[in-house]
Amino acid sequence: MVVSSQTTLQNSSHIFKTCNIPVIDMLDPQAKFHITKACQEFGFLKVVNHGIPNETMTNLEGDAAKFFNLPQCEKNKVCPANPFGYGNKRIGSNGDVGWVEYLLFTTNSEIVSEKSVSIPGNSQLFWSSLNEYVTAVRNMACLVLEKIADGLTIEPKNVLSRLLRDQKSDSCFRLNYYPPCTELEALSGGNGNLIGFGEHTDPQVISVIRSNNTTGLQISLRDGTWVSVPPDQYSFFIIVGDSLQVMTNGRFRGVKHRVLANSLKARLSMIYFGGPPLNEKIAPLSSLMEEGEESLYKEFTWHEYKKSAYKTRLSDHRLGLFEKKIEVS
């Protein structure tokens, strides 16, 4: 099943076209094949009938909105994001900026630790909503990865999902808030396109995004065309990460994505980044490789790749340093 995105933005250099985004019903007996195909062709898909209650999503959205609507002086008590905590406009340490505020948390077997970031106000309710949401989304991400393993006919079934369930899993969770930009035309140089979060791929295994009913998310197709993703506050979007691209030896491709600012409405995104343990070796899965197939990538640990990736700008080709140069005879 597919759904067409909307053509919403245009300037002198870009026309944002329509695109058939794969929509996967998690209750469909053929879901494993549809998910696998979507990861191969797009690196991006939407899942419905995912089993996560609307209340779990809206409770966290409401608590997050309360935080981002606090006076700036209150939010500043939670910064700087180093790397966890509150950040405003500055993304990372390499000069990237955007029209965005965010909260970044680490997750582990205890999910999110209250000791990691101090949230003003009724923090007990916030942590309760956050932990309930992250637990549910992590379980769904693991189910998606198990269906991928089934779709690729690789064993064991948990070869991918175990990375997220491991007690030492280096996963994280991010709340991105894009406030309305009343000066959009002026700040964007008159073309109406102001970057909320710059183009990038995600370095982890898999990302799960849910947002409120506001536009802004875009993905880049293989030909470089940017397409807008229609918002859907009741569904989740799955993104293939760099690590999964390596483990499938390039069969799956991480998709570049970005967010554009909105002049009228605030956008709130909740993103779970499923990462492996720091010492996990990232390499093509032996059970997937065909006879005589060469690895396209040098083997590395997640710690090595994470350290390298976070030294780069958002738009850099992070996997480039780890690609093998295949000689053609």
Main sheet characteristics: 9 strands, mixed
Shape, per Cα inertia axes: globular
Ends apart, CA distance between termini = 42 Å
**Order of helices and strands, N to C?**
EEHEHHEEHHEHEEEEEHEEEEH
Instruction: Give me the Rg, rounded.
Output: 19 Å
Oligomer: single chain
User: How are strands sequenced across the largest beta sheet?
Assistant: 1-2-3-11-8-13-6-5-4
Strand tally is 15
Could you please describe the fold and organization of this structure?
- The chain is an alpha+beta fold.
- 25% of the residues lie in helices and 25% in strands.
- The chain contains eight helices and 15 strands.
- The protein has helices spanning 31-41, 54-68, 72-75, 123-151, 161-165, 184-187, 242-247, 302-309, and strands at residues 2-4, 20-25, 44-48, 85-91, 96-107, 171-178, 195-200, 206-211, 217-220, 226-228, 236-240, 257-260, 267-274, 281-282, 300-301.
- A nine-stranded mixed β-sheet has the order 1-2-3-11-8-13-6-5-4.
- A hairpin with a 4-residue loop joins strand 4 (85-91) and strand 5.
- Pathway: Hormone biosynthesis; Plant hormone biosynthesis; gibberellin biosynthesis.
- It holds the Pfam family 2OG-FeII_Oxy.
- It is an enzyme of class 1 (oxidoreductase).
